[in-house]
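Q&A log
Question type: sequence-to-structure
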Amino acid sequence: MSSNASVNTVTSLNVKSHDNPDEKRRPDKSEIDLVTVGDYTIGRLTFAPGWRWSECIKPVAGTDTCQNNHVGYCISGTLEVHLATGESATITAGSSYTIPPGHDAWVVGDETYVGLEFLSAAAYAKPE
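Response status: OK
Response body:
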C-alpha cells in the first residue's frame, strides 16, 4: 500500500440496486443512477452515442471543463478523455480509471458507454 493511500472503514452491510436507484439524473444523452450504501455514493453512468461532456453536462455544471475528480470502472463502450493540459486517454470495457479535474470527454463510436463511478458520483451532473 502506498504511503498516501487512505484507509476506508465499512461498518454496516448495505446492498442496493442501480436498477432501483436512490436518485436519477437525466441530462441530455445521460443516465446517472445513484445509490448510497453506508458512507459511499456509487453512480452508474450511461452515456448514449453522441454524448459529449461539453455539450450534455456543461450546461448543468456551469463550468468550462469538468471539475470533478473521477475514479471508476468501464463496463461497456468507449470514452475518450482530454485534459486541459493536453493529455488524453481512451477508456474501454474492463478498464479502471482516474481522471483529474479540467477535462472534456465523449463517447466514441455507436456503442453506449456504461461505467461505475466511486468518487464523484454524488456531485456529478448536479447543478452547482
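Response note: The CA atoms of residues 1 and 46 lie 32 Å apart.
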